[in-house]
């Protein structure tokens, strides 16, 4: 029996154009289609696989505006059992620390949590810090960047994979927090039966005040401020090399000038 | 007033299949098509998503949805590829649906759970080498000998009949003569691998190349008497009702193909330049695309409405025929215009529009030709009666 909380986030679809809002440099949520972050789908998949093997319950916890309900529905239609949705205008512009505090309180409303699963980083902000901050706030062992997870009895083992360190093997007693990378699994697609069932699954809606965080969160209280932002410059045309028998040399000279060779 | 919005769960299904088609089918289907190879892994994934069980209740392993849910899935698949769409369409509406509709409890429980899961495929053997829409021209025979049906004859153009996961073919056969002198036609379940039942190698086709289509031969093929599907002598009436539904499904496939042409062209006309301008800046291209959109939009409304009548249990023969007629026209016209817009690249197999062009033609033929649809529409209006 393993009770699992999965953190999910609604993000702008990576297929659409993403930008920051002109006024306060926060994410412009209207500018792009909103989807459940793909790394969260993998986190849900991992939770469902563990649940199918060990029984238990999967609860999704989401902090985001009302429309994030669509992302929650998708998680529920994949097979999660219930959801906690923290939605509050006051949270607009919350930074990583505040978001982690909200998540810590929200996870605290779920009883008997054995394991928290997060994606290693969201595809919009790409801070990648929330799992670690949350683990600290909750006093849980953190096993991040997992490409493989095994839960046996009261223990979780992961293969942690990072670009710098290669693969390390970690183990902790439950309760614990893990974050998964994109190699962890291939998430399932929701079936129509799952979609129909999701309509009847409970979603608890909470505000910052419900969690006792009124007045502490939001853009005004963020620890960091985005001063300005500019759109990515358009890609410049490449340099053309005409091959007059010396094309190879010219290419080599170009690469050398860029310190690539 | 009429509300044309999709219910939340139908929209969620549509999005899911759109995502699947874009992420899983689009990157690989071109190669399967080139090699005329059946995409077993994609079909398995479609099975895991529950697509083959969409219109069936959970009691037989289905998803508890309906025929409209199936149509939405077909449209989204066909936006990317028609071979996988037709594999699903035939698997559900021709393979599993007759068993669900006309089978007894034992037959349903024996066959449907595996067909609904996509682990196995069923096929429907109606058309014969000498007769397509003239189903009364059936020459295949089945006679009871020592408590078994002995089947002799052949069937043509049977989808999903020869894959490694094909489990059965339901065949129509002449089982006697009615008092009025007409042929008595019945439907009989023939499990794959039954001695005397052979499937020919795959046809070489103009389109739908990643789907499985074969000719079947029966030579003293024996199956138990209880493999009769539905009532003896009702085979003809049974498959007529299956075909009406199938027309709505083919309309959905056609709308998907027509939409896929638009999707591809919108991308292309914003990139491709001639004479120093994006080709989308030319009215010749704009008008083509506007016509493509108008055809697709009206065809989609036609099949939605036919499906709505079907699900309400009202007669929908005329609406199904109209939907199939206008949608297959839209598919053919759009694929012709799309290949024109793509110019020389439209004639290259590496671009999807060329594949769409080849796949569109059969839509004016399969599940009743466009001429048959016109016959049905005018007959429903009482013309020439």
UniProtKB/TrEMBL annotation, chain A:
Cellular component per GO, a single term = cytosol
The residues covered by the Electron transfer flavoprotein alpha/beta-subunit N-terminal domain are 24-215
Q: Which residues form a coiled coil?
A: none
* Keyword entries, A-Z: Electron transport, Transport
Is the keyword Manganese in the record? no
Protein name, please?
Electron transfer flavoprotein subunit beta
- SMART domains in alphabetical order: ETF
Q: Name one Pfam family in it.
A: ETF
InterPro entries this protein is in? Answer: ETF_a/b_N, ETF_b, ETF_beta_N, Rossmann-like_a/b/a_fold
Indicate the family of this protein. Belongs to the ETF beta-subunit/FixA family.
Describe its function: The electron transfer flavoprotein serves as a specific electron acceptor for other dehydrogenases. It transfers the electrons to the main respiratory chain via ETF-ubiquinone oxidoreductase (ETF dehydrogenase).
An example of a GO molecular function for this protein is: electron transfer activity
Q: How does it assemble?
A: Heterodimer of an alpha and a beta subunit.
Its needed co-factors are: FAD
Species per Swiss-Prot/TrEMBL record = Tamaricihabitans halophyticus
Automatic annotation (TrEMBL), chain B:
InterPro entries membership: Acyl-CoA_DH_CS, Acyl-CoA_Oxase/DH_mid-dom, Acyl-CoA_Oxase/DH_mid-dom_sf, AcylCo_DH-like_C, AcylCo_DH/oxidase_C, AcylCoA_DH/ox_N, AcylCoA_DH/ox_N_sf, AcylCoA_DH/oxidase_NM_dom_sf
* Limits of the Acyl-CoA dehydrogenase/oxidase C-terminal domain: 233-381
> What keywords are annotated for this sequence in UniProt?
FAD, Flavoprotein, Oxidoreductase
**Pfam families named among the record's database cross-references:** Acyl-CoA_dh_1 (PF00441), Acyl-CoA_dh_M (PF02770), Acyl-CoA_dh_N (PF02771)
Name the PROSITE patterns on file: ACYL_COA_DH_1, ACYL_COA_DH_2
Protein name (database record): Alkylation response protein AidB-like acyl-CoA dehydrogenase
A GO MF term: flavin adenine dinucleotide binding
Q: Where is the Acyl-CoA dehydrogenase/oxidase N-terminal domain?
A: 8-118
- Entry's family note: Belongs to the acyl-CoA dehydrogenase family.
Residue ranges of the Acyl-CoA oxidase/dehydrogenase middle domain?
A: 123-221
What cofactor is needed?
FAD
**What organism is recorded for this protein?**
Tamaricihabitans halophyticus
């Amino acid at each position: 029996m393993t009770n699992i909380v999965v953190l999910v986030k609604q993000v702008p679809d990576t297929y659409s154009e993403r930008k920051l809002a002109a006024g306060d440099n926060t994410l412009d949520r209207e500018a792009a289609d909103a989807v459940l972050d793909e790394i969260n789908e993998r986190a849900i998949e991992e939770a469902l696989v563990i649940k199918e093997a060990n029984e238990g319950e999967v609860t999704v916890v989401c902090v985001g505006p009302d429309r994030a309900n669509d992302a929650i529905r998708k998680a529920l239609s994949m097979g999660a059992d219930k959801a906690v949705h923290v939605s509050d205008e006051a949270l607009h512009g919350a930074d990583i620390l505040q978001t982690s505090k909200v998540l810590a309180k929200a996870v605290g409303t779920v009883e008997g949590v054995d394991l928290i699963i997060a994606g290693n980083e969201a595809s919009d902000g790409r801070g990648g810090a929330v799992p670690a901050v949350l683990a600290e706030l909750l006093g849980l062992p953190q096993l991040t960047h997992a490409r493989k997870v095994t839960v046996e009895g009261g223990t979780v083992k992961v293969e942690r994979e990072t670009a710098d360190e290669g693969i390390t093997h970690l183990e902790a007693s439950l309760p614990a927090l893990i974050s998964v990378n994109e190699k962890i699994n291939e998430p399932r697609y929701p079936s129509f039966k799952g979609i129909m069932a999701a309509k009847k699954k409970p979603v608890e809606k909470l505000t910052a005040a419900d969690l006792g965080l009124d007045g502490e969160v939001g853009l005004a209280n963020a620890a960091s401020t985005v001063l300005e932002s500019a759109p990515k410059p358009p890609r410049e045309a490449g340099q053309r090399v005409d091959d007059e028998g010396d094309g190879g040399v010219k290419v080599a000279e170009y690469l050398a000038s860029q310190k690539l060779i | 007033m009429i509300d044309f919005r999709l219910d939340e769960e139908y929209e969620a299904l549509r999005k899911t299949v759109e995502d699947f088609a874009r992420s899983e089918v689009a990157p690989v289907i071109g190669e399967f098509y080139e090699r005329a190879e059946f995409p077993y892994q994609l079909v398995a994934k479609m099975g895991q998503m529950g697509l083959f069980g969409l219109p069936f209740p959970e009691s037989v392993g289905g998803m508890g949805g309906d025929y409209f849910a199936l149509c939405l899935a077909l449209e989204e698949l066909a936006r990317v590829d028609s071979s996988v769409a037709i594999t699903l369409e035939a698997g559900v509406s021709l393979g599993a649906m007759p068993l669900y509709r006309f089978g007894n409890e034992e037959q349903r429980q024996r066959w449907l759970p595996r067909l609904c899961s996509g682990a196995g495929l069923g096929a429907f053997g109606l058309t014969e080498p000498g007769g397509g829409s003239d189903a009364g021209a059936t020459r295949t025979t089945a006679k009871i000998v020592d408590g078994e049906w002995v089947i002799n004859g052949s069937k043509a153009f049977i989808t999903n009949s020869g894959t490694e996961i094909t489990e059965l073919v339901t065949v129509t056969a002449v089982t006697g003569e009615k008092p009025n002198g007409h042929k008595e036609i019945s439907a009989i379940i023939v499990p794959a691998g039954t001695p005397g039942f052979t499937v020919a190698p795959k046809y070489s086709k103009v389109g739908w190349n990643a789907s499985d289509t074969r000719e079947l031969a029966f030579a003293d093929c024996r199956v138990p008497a209880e493999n009769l599907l539905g009532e003896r002598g009702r085979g003809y009436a049974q498959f007529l009702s299956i075909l009406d539904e199938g027309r709505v499904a083919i309309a959905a496939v056609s709308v998907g193909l027509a939409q896929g042409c638009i999707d591809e062209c919108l991308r292309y006309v914003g990139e491709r330049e001639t004479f120093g301008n994006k080709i989308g800046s030319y009215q010749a291209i704009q008008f083509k695309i506007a016509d493509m959109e108008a055809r697709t939009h009206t065809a989609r409304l036609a099949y939605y409405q036919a499906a709505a009548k079907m699900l309400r249990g009202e007669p929908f023969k005329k609406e199904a025929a109209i939907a199939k007629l206008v949608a297959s026209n839209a598919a053919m016209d759009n694929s012709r215009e799309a290949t024109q817009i793509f110019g020389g690249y439209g004639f290259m197999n590496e671009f999807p529009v060329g594949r769409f062009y080849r796949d569109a033609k059969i839509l004016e033929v399969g599940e009743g030709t466009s001429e048959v649809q016109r016959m049905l529409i005018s007959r429903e209006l009482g013309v020439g009666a």
